[in-house]
Known about the structure:
The complex is a heterodimer.
Chain A: H1 2-24, H2 47-51, E1 66-72, H3 76-92, E2 96-102, H4 105-118, E3 124-128, H5 132-137, E4 141-142, H6 160-164, E5 167-168, E6 171-172, E7 175-176, E8 178-179, E9 182-187, H7 188-193, H8 209-222, E10 228-231, H9 237-249, H10 267-282, H11 293-298, E11 302-308, H12 311-316, E12 323-327, E13 337-338, E14 342-347, H13 354-369, H14 371-374, E15 380-381, H15 384-387, H16 390-394, H17 398-401, E16 408-409, H18 417-433, H19 439-455
Parallel strand pairs in A: 1-2, 1-3, 10-11, 13-16
Antiparallel strand pairs in A: 3-14, 4-14, 5-6, 7-14, 8-15, 9-11, 9-12
Helix pairs in contact in A: 9-10, 10-19, 18-19
Chain B: H1 2-37, E1 40-42, E2 47-50, H2 54-61, H3 63-95, H4 101-109, H5 116-127, H6 133-140, H7 156-184, H8 188-196, H9 201-229, H10 233-238, H11 250-260, H12 264-291
Antiparallel strand pairs in B: 1-2
Helix pairs in contact in B: 3-4, 3-7, 3-9, 3-11, 5-7, 7-9, 9-12, 11-12
Amino acid sequence: MKKSYGLSVTALLSVSLMLSACGGNNNGGNASPADSSAPASSAPASSAAASESAAPSDNGGSGEKVNLSFWTLFDGGDGANMQALVDEFNKTHPDIQVKNTKLVWGEYYTKLITAVGNGTGPDVGISHTSRLPDLIDQGVVTSYDDVAKDAGVDWSTFNQNLLNATVVDGEHYAVPIDTHPFIMYYNKKLLKDAGLLGEDGKPVLEQSADGFIKFLDALKAKLPAKTTPFALSNSNDDPYRLWWALYSQLGGNDVVADDLKTAAVDADKGAKAADYIQKLYTNGYIKKNDPDFYKNFQSGTAAIMMTGVWATGTWESTKGLDFGAMPIPKIFDQPATWGDSHTIILPTTKANDPAKRKAAAVFANWIADNGQIWAKAGHIPSKPSVLEKEEFKALPYRSDYASVADTVKFSKPSTKVWQIRDNSSFKFLNEVWANKMTPADAMAKMQAETQKILNE
Amino acid sequence: MRMNKLRADVLALLFLLPFLAVYGLFTIWPMIKGVEMTFYKWTLIKKMKYVGWDNYSKMFHDQDVWAAIWHSTIFVILTTPTMIVLAILLAMIANRKSRLQKLYRSVFFLPSVLSVAVASYLGLFIFQPYNGFVNTLLHLIQLLPDNKEIFWLTETNLSWIALTLITLWWTVGFNFILYLSAMQDIPDEIVEAARLDGATDSKIFWNITLPYLTPITKTIAMLQIISSFKVFLQIYIITGGGPLDKTRPIIQLIYQTGFRKNDLGYAATMSYMLFVILLVLSAIQYFVNNRKGANA
C-alpha cells in the first residue's frame, strides 16, 4: 500500500521532471500586464525640437482626461526617442496621458497577441507593417476608419507607398510612423584611400551590375588585405534583404501571388539575384562567416556595408567613423529595396471605448507629425511634410536616403510573411551564400516550401 | 491493525495535500489540458477548432519532426558515452592523493555553476572564426595556416563537435562529483589487499574501481540520456539549429511551432511524442536496473 503511493508519487515527479524542459520554455506565452514601465527619465530632453510642431489643437474637445496604455518594442536609441516623443505629447496634451511600456522586442508580438486575447492588452501598440496581416487575421488589431476623421487623421498627408502597405481590404489598420529600408553605408576614409570618393563626398560608382563589381574589385585591389571591401553577414536577415532588393529591382514581385494562397517565386529573377550575391561571397568581397559585420564596419575595417537605416544613429555616435549613407545602388533594371515600417495600431480591447480610440488616433497622428524626433535613430519619417521641416533637414545623412521611401518594396499582406521568411527564404538562401546550393535549386526549394507554409 | 494502517495513510495524505494541490493545479492539470490541445487547432489566443487525430497523422508524416528527433538522438549518442568517460577520467585525477586535489575538484566543477546562456555565449566566443579562441590558438601553434579559418559553427559535422565539446565542458562537473563520491565509497581494504597481491594500477581500475562504479554509471547514463534528449538552449544560442536546420533538436521545433508559427495544438502533439519517448527510455532503465537488483 505504502509502497504504491511512493511509487506513484515518484512516477509523477519524474514525469514532471521530464516535461519540465517543455514547460520551462513556454513562459513566453504569459502576458504580464504588470508593466515594467521604463523610467521616464531615460529620455534625453529633446522637447525643444518637438514643441514647434503640429499645434495641439485636436484634443477632441471634451474636458475628460483620457489615459492610454502604450506598448512598444523599442530599445536603445529608438527607445529613448520614443519616450521623448511620449513625454512631449503628454506635456502638450493635458487631456490625454500616454503611459509607455517597453517590452522586449523578441517577445513583443507573443505578449501582445496573448494579452489582447485575455483582454489585458494595451490601448495603443506598435506593429511592423509586415506583421499587420497576421494581427488582423487573429483579431488583434482594429481598423482606424471609425475614429480617424474625428481625430483629424488625414491619410493623404502620408507617404502613399508606406500607407498602402498598411491598408488591408480597403481599411486603414495602422498609422505608419516611419520606414526603415535597407540602404548602403560607406567609409569615406577608405573610399578616399582607394580613390573612389568623389568631390561631393559620394562614392564613384556606376549604378549597374558590372559597375558595382568593378567598384568592389577596385576596393579589394587598392585597400590592405585585412580590410573587408563589403561588410555583410553570411546568413539570415541582411543578405536576404539584399536579395529581396535585387529581386525587386529585376521586377520580381514577392514570393507569393496576389491571391496570397499560391507560392510565386519568380525562379529566373530570383536565381539571377541570388547568383549575383553568391559571387560577392565566393569572389571574396564579403568576409566569409564574418562573426560581426556591424563591428567590422564600425571599427573602420570595412569599406562599405548594407543594413537597415537604424544603423545611422549607431555610426553617428561612433567616434572617428567618417561615413556616408546612400540608397542601395541600382544594380538591375529599376530602383527598389527591402523595407518595413513601424506603425501605431489600435489593439482590440474589452470595451473598445470610442473616447480612448479617438485619443489613441490623435496620439498616433501626432507621432507621425513629429517624425523629425523619431528620425534621430535613422528612420525615414512617414509624412513628406516632415521631410521639409528644418529640424529634419538639420540632421545629416537622412536626406541622402529619404527618397528611398518611395521605392521600398513591401511584402504582400500575407499572414505568413514572417514564417515564409524565417522558415523558407532564410534557410535556402543561407545555403546559397555558403556555396552549398545552386541559386536555381534554392528557388525551386523556396517555391515548394513557401507553398507548404501557405497550405498550413 | 488494518485500521491503523489506513489511518496512517490518510494522515500522510493530509500532510501531502498542500503540495498535491499546487502540484495538481500547476503540473497535472496542464498536462491533461495539453492532451486536449493535441486534438485541436489551438493558437496562442484560443482554441480554434476540433481536428481529431489530424495533428497526430500530420506528425507521423512530417519529415521535419523526424529529422529533429534524429538530431536530438545524435546529440544523445555524442554526449552520453563521452560524458561518462570524461567524468570518470576527471574523477580519477581528482581522487589521487595530491596537493592539487582541492584545486582539481573546484576547477572541474566550476563550469557547472554557469547558466546555460553564459556557457553557450562563451562557447560561441571560443569557436567563432577569425578571433575565436580555438582558431587563434590553432594559428598560434601553426596547426592552421594564417589564411585559413575553420568554421566550427556553420559546417554540420564541425558544429556537432563544437556543441558536444561545449556541453561536456559545461555539464561534466555534476557527473564528476557523482563519480568522485562513488570512488570514495570504495573500501580502502579491498584496494590495499589487491596491492598486496601485486595487482597493477590498471588491474585495480578494471577489476575493482569500474565494477564499483557500475550502479552510479547506470544512473548517470540514464540522467544523461534524458537531459540530452531535452537539449535546446545551447543549440539554439550557438547554431540556432543551423546550418539548414541540420542541428535543430526536437524541442526547438516544438518551440518554433508553438510560438513562432502560433500552432500550439501541433506543438503539444510533438511534446507528447517526446514525452512518450522519454517515458519508454525511463521504463527501460527501470527494468534494467531492477532485474539485476542494483540499487541505482
